[in-house]
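step 3/5: co-fold with magnesium ion
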Amino acid sequence: MIELKNVRAGYGTPDAFVAAVDDVTLTVHDNEILGIAGESGCGKSTLMRTLYGDFSGGLKMTAGEVTGRFTDPDSGRTRESDAARFQDLWWDQISYVPQGSMSVLNPIMKVEKQIVDALPKREKQGSKAELRQRIVDFLAGFGLPETVLDSYPHQLSGGMRQRVLVAIAAFVRPRLILADEPTTALDVVVQKRILLMLVEIQRRLKNTLVLVSHDLGVHYQITDRIAIAYAGKIVEVGPTADVFEAPLHPYTEALIGALPRVGQKSERVGLDGRPPSLAAPPQGCRFAARCPEAQAICRQKSPPLVDKAPNHASACHFR
Ligand code: ADP
Ligand code: MG
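step 4/5: write tokens
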């Protein structure tokens, strides 16, 4: 569906160019749930904005290419595009729930108008009352009552606002939904409800969901494939079950090792330290400073992401 080839994207700052996505090659397949995991500051949100083709607020793509193919499941018609033109597909083929999106809703407009304004023409056929009823039915699936439509955002709880945003993103029946930490900061019950809705919608529409979460438990539960981001690089990508069962990169292993397990008596080992600065990243493997297995070569040469098993790639010299 979307292919990134050797993509470099980031932000110009007075000191340096911060390459938050640095030479990333990644394929997003049709009809899958792809997870993107990794610590904060590793470039997940920048990668999502690159997939969305949102080059605003100082984000620039300086190398590589992003191409997309969007196939309508009913007509079989395919539209091809590239990141610079994805904007034409927003809220039609591609929808996006940005991180920290609580503030995306307009505070001085009732929710119904905001939803209707966001819809493409094809969703607005029929009478206003019919459209309202369809929206009401759809929101009900998210546990949102009709009164939400006649409310201003500030009258809703954080969890409700977030559900409204996810609902708008899904209501347009896009081929691709990009959701960046859509449930972070919500309580566990609401979190679960939103994630289950996203999965249900993806199955029903047979579309693609790219989900960013720093919570590996979420990925384990719902994603088909997972990509692990570290310091602007994708260091491992593969089927989620394979990655959890046999992680190929020491960083992935450390993230999984830090997960709490049922019945586990000993404490899980967390990962010390922080990812390196992206303004001046170290030479060689970017994880070397924190890697218990790092050897001389790790600090000299940056390994490319290569397939080590069918569909399972890793950027580690030794595995
Ligand atoms: P993540 O989503 O994994 O936390 P981000 O993509 O948000 O990572 O950020 C990656 C890096 O890019 C960080 O070092 C962050 O400080 C930097 N960054 C993000 N947005 C901007 C911006 N608008 N201007 C400058 N640097 C930015
Ligand atoms: Mg982020």
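step 5/5: annotate
The pocket of adenosine-5'-diphosphate (ligand 1) is lined by residues 11, 13, 18, 20, 38, 40-46, 57-58, 278 (CB under 6 Å).
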